[in-house]
Amino acid sequence: MRIASGLLAVLGVMLGGVVVFLSAGEAIAAPGIAEDWQLGFQDAVTPVMQEIEKFHNFVLILVTIITVFVMMLLLIVMVRFNAKRNPTPSRTTHNTMIEVVWTIAPILILLVIAIPSFRLLYLQRDLPEIDFTIKATGHQWHWRYEYPDHQVGEFESYMVDEADLEEGQPRLLTVDQDIVVPVNATVRVIVTAEDVLHNWAMPSFGVKMDAVPGRLNETWFRAVQTGIFHGQCSELCGINHAFMPITVRVVSESEFETWIAGMQDEYPPLEASLPPSGTFADASHQ
Ligand SMILES: [Cu+2]
């Protein structure tokens, strides 16, 4: 009975691993949005997300092998060393060789995981040379954006209510004002919040950055594919946490130019509000 349930568990883990592994590589019809019954990630649209997906698949294979190996050891112990087969138990206490192996092997496995893991962390953390910056500010409960390098001032992005959705627009993920970026541009996102913690998260970009009041966090992405991509606030931020989605439209360079020109007219930047130069230095001497 015990052996049967052990076997079932092994089969379950193997099957689960294979299903998740296959689904991770599968092309998804509508990129930028999760599908019903989807397993694995949304389609990767940035180099960072492609690396995350690769790392995920690698660790998944490793975990599956380890689980199957341990299960097999357990089964062998259950069959060969049970009380019925061994009325007089062995009194073995040490085996130096085995103890060295089971100390060294996990260290090696951890190293094999740690090296690509750190490489990935640095890829996310170290900003490459950027083309321009977007500032995203979290509010209860919507996002406010700014394109400082293009002289576009603050504009708001609210979720569209279900009743006002147009054909093909996803529920709870559509906003009244998308943010738009050109394809293949390296964009820095400066993320902050004005009231409570929020989180600017875009699954297909591999971006999830905390928005902390009084603090500027930065992250980056380079979308290599045009399309409409959806994300959501990913930090519990209050009653309407589930209703502050993010929509990024990745378009061609010329479409972006047209969009940004329109935004410059509609949302001119606020008057520079920095104190005159020297003010900070004077204050520090007082
Ligand atoms: Cu939020």
In quaternary terms, these chains amount to single chain
Kindly report the name of the CATH homologous superfamily of the largest domain.
Cupredoxins -  blue copper proteins
**What's the average pLDDT?**
86
CATH class of the largest domain: Mainly Beta
Would you list the SSEs in sequence order as H and E? HHHEEEEEEEEEEHH
Strand runs, count: 10
Helix fraction, binned, reads: 25-40%
How many separate domains make up the residues?
A: 2
CATH architecture of the largest domain: Sandwich
Largest sheet: 5 strands, mixed
Instruction: Catalogue the unreliable spans.
Output: 18-30, 281-286
Strand order of the largest sheet: 3-2-1-5-8
The hetero molecules present are: copper (II) ion
Question: First CA to last CA: what distance?
Answer: 80 Å
Fraction of residues in β-strands: 15-25%
